Amino acid sequence: MTMPELPEVETIVRVLETSLKGSQIQSMDFRYPGLLEEGSEFPLEFLVGKTFTDFSRRGKYLVFEFDHAYAWIVHLRMEGKFHLYEAPQRPTKHTHLVLECDDHTVHYLDTRKFSRMAVVSDVDAYFIAKKLGPEPFGIDPEYLYKQIKKSTRAIKNILLDQSVVVGIGNIYADEILFETQIHPLTKGNKITKKDVANLVVVIESVLSSAIEQGGTTIRSYTSSLNVNGRFQVRLNAYGQAGKPCTRCGNTLSRIVLGGRSTVFCSKCQKVKR
Predict the structure, then answer these.
(1) Rounded-to-integer distance, Cα 13 and Cα 54, Å
(2) Using H for helix, E for strand and C for coil, what is the string for 31-94?
(3) If pLDDT is split at 50, 70 and 90, which confidence band does 244 have?
(4) Model confidence over 132-153: pLDDT tens digits?
(5) Which of 172, 158, 185 is nearest to 238 (CA)?
(6) C-alpha–C-alpha distance, residues 132 and 63, integer Å
(7) Secondary element (H or E) of residue 273
(8) 37: burial class by Cβ within 10 Å (0-12, 13-18, 19+)?
(9) Quick one: pLDDT band at residue 33, thresholds 50, 70, 90?
(10) Phi/psi of residue 22, each to 5°?
């Protein structure tokens, strides 16, 4: 199972906004309070009677804003998912939250219970405390070059570091490095300014394309929202080990880097020494 990344989270936010914007939470059954962060400013039940006013995303976090300037922040982690119904439904053993809203019943499920939630009055302060890097759209090449160049870590691990750039996970890191023809094991201090300029363009294009396609694994995370991730049919690297490279025909290789499966073309993507 792969953690939902920025395109998946963006898609979930957009779909939920279509269904829930302007809707008031009438009642709540928080069946597993362990999902609430210890640092949450308010209990989740505080949102009963509040109305959804705005929907956004910060990295891989979903942000639901309510009237009276309160926000509910959710990180799906590995298996968090929202199910929306037009009528009340019986919870399953993995349903940890039930919201009864004006026109919908919302179930939140998480098999592993790794998700985290918080209710806050200051969204900016919450994310400052998380020490997140900038969004990957319109990123400053000079900033990214400085962050990469000072590190001796593998470039893939740098791209996965949410304090450098938010939203990139294992799937899109493989795809981005494939497109830029950079070997995932290349150390940050070997990356050139030209490489970074290319990375900035490709990061934005790969993530934008994935958002347009509804993400890669969206079916796993929002199964009842009728949104299908179609980007998986366009993956060139992630999950394609043993298949021919779409650029040169060479068989794609797989290694484990930082505990994550990593796929690349050993012919197109050379380690920089």
Answers:
(1) 10
(2) CCHHHECCCCCECHHHHCCCEEEEEEEECCEEEEEECCCEEEEEECCCCCEEEEECCCCCCCCC
(3) very high
(4) 999 999 999 999 999 999 999 9
(5) 172
(6) 15
(7) none
(8) middle
(9) very high
(10) 85, 0
- For residue range 193-242, what is the model confidence (pLDDT) as tens digits? 999 999 999 999 999 988 887 655 544 444 455 555 555 557 899 999 99
Res 216: pLDDT = 59
Backbone torsions φ then ψ of 247, nearest 5 degrees: -100, -45
pLDDT at 225: 54
225 CB neighbour count, 10 Å cutoff: 19
Report which of 27, 239, 3, 230 is spatially closest to residue 112, judged by C-alpha positions.
Answer: 3
pLDDT by residue (tens digit) across 96-115? 999 999 989 999 999 999 99
pTM over 0.90: no
Lookup: tokens for 48: 């009963």
- Rounded CA-CA distance 41/31 in Å is 19
Q: Which residues are catalytic?
A: 4-5, 60, 260
Give the pairing of strands 253-257 and 70-75.
Answer: unpaired
Tokens 């940050």 -> residue? 188
d(CA 148, CA 135): 16
